[in-house]
Amino acid sequence: MSDQTDKPWAGRFTAPTDAFVEAFTASIGFDKRLYRHDITGSIAHARMLAHVGVLTVDERDKIVNGLQSILQDIEQGNFAWSTELEDVHMNIEARLTDRIGDTGKKLHTGRSRNDQVATDVRLYLRDEIDTLQSELRRLQAGLLELAAKESDTIMPGFTHLQTAQPVTLGHHLLAWFEMLQRDSARLADCRKRVNVMPLGSAALAGTTYPIDRHFTAGELGFDGVCENSLDAVSDRDFAIEFTSAAALIMVHLSRFSEELILWSSAQFNFVDLGDSFCTGSSIMPQKKNPDVPELVRGKTGRIQGHLVSLLTLMKGQPLAYNKDNQEDKEPLFDTIDNLKGCLRLYADMMPQVTFNRAAMREAARRGFSTATDLADYLVRKGVPFRDAHEIVGKAVRYGVDNQLDLAEMPLEVLQSFSTIISDDVFTVLTLEGSVAARNHIGGTAPAQVREAVVRARSRLEE
Ligand code: ARG
Fold first, then answer.
1. Domain check: are 81 and 229 in the same one?
2. Between the CA atoms of 336, 338, 340 and 343, what dihedral angle is there, to the nearest 10 degrees?
3. pTM of the predicted model, to two decimals?
4. Structure confidence by residue, pLDDT tens digits, 285-343
5. CA gap 355, 348 in Å, rounded
6. In a domain, 406, yes or no
7. Residues with beta carbon inside 6 Å of ligand 1?
8. Whose CA is nearest to atom 4 of ligand 1?
9. Given 64, 80, 109, which residue is the final one in a domain?
10. Residue of the nearest CA to atom 2 in ligand 1?
11. Which site in 16, 31, 89, 94 is 20 to 30 Å from 39, CA atoms measured?
12. Using one digit for the tens of pLDDT, what is the confidence trace for 56-99?
């Protein structure tokens, strides 16, 4: 007789599990966070078993009540998790039998931990995706507020981080909004494949009981059931897809961070991130450091790492379930926790940010940001674009040598580069004229920004 009567597989074994193997193979340290979804899944399974006559109504009620009281215990902190019981599934099932007696042993009829864990993770991830979506939306709504407020604010637009053309800050903020809008669509698409139910696949081949998988799926709010039991217990594509969408959200947050960090430096002086989102230095009294964006940028690395972990975890696995799959949880959970934190911080921080409109305007004025406007002006007067480019290039060269912006050059100087130039040139050389002229859908003109904000608000509600 085995001396490890607590293990569900004790019947087959003659020696107890090595103590370190037990610790090494246990997942309870990290999968206990699935408890609520594990219990929800078990309750639905018990109801389905009664529905098809495998459990009596009385057995079902005992199991459901027992599980509900365990849920309460866990939420009140009255549940001692045990490593000998390996994982969240066996911990809860063992407690159920302790509490309600032998009926508890019937819960696992027609089920395996293989379909159970896949179901739990999907239920859990579905909830987390919904929370992430609302944080994303909160951040997007904040960006729209700011974009509306800054639709007339002029700043330099950059390519190669060199001043390129003037843009409106509202337009820049709307670019961030668009990145997040795609992220949100990716999460919504991923959720469709998360929300399919593995339960009923049992260990790998299905079960001999007359189960009703659609009944269970209906109880749990799944959109459908996994078609193939072998695939259902081994598939972690949904976790990879989610982590991939998460990694891309982090890439976006990291890019916002990079800009905010640059812009909050004394050299740019475009933005003040707000004291509650910065920290000081223990040695340099003048410092106000953009720690939040820096840490968000830093955390992008670990989430990209988690994506690679999950891809690598799956690449060598034969069908169907393998213990390797237990390694899906820590990367997935850490991705969710950190992504949620980063989105929350960004959604909280952005409304606190103040922009230094004067410094942005001054920076746009420097760097010949209206050079393209001058070339376009010459083109409108019949000069071929390549010649216009050459003429303006010479004017810029002169400006660099004499420390003069184009708009600061006297008309006679401008005319020395092309006699076609007349005094109407100054309206195109102003920053306002430059942005207002890019007046089409997707352009930087303040009027377009205001319309884009209106459209974005209704897209956000879709
Ligand atoms: N803790 C396990 C996991 O996370 C549960 C499934 C275990 N199944 C098994 N056949 N050993 O994957």
1. no
2. -140
3. 0.94
4. 788 899 999 999 999 999 999 999 999 999 999 999 999 999 999 999 999 999 999 99
5. 16
6. yes
7. 27, 31, 87, 113-114, 117, 321, 323, 325-326
8. 326
9. 109
10. 326
11. 16
12. 999 999 999 999 999 999 999 999 999 999 999 999 999 999 99
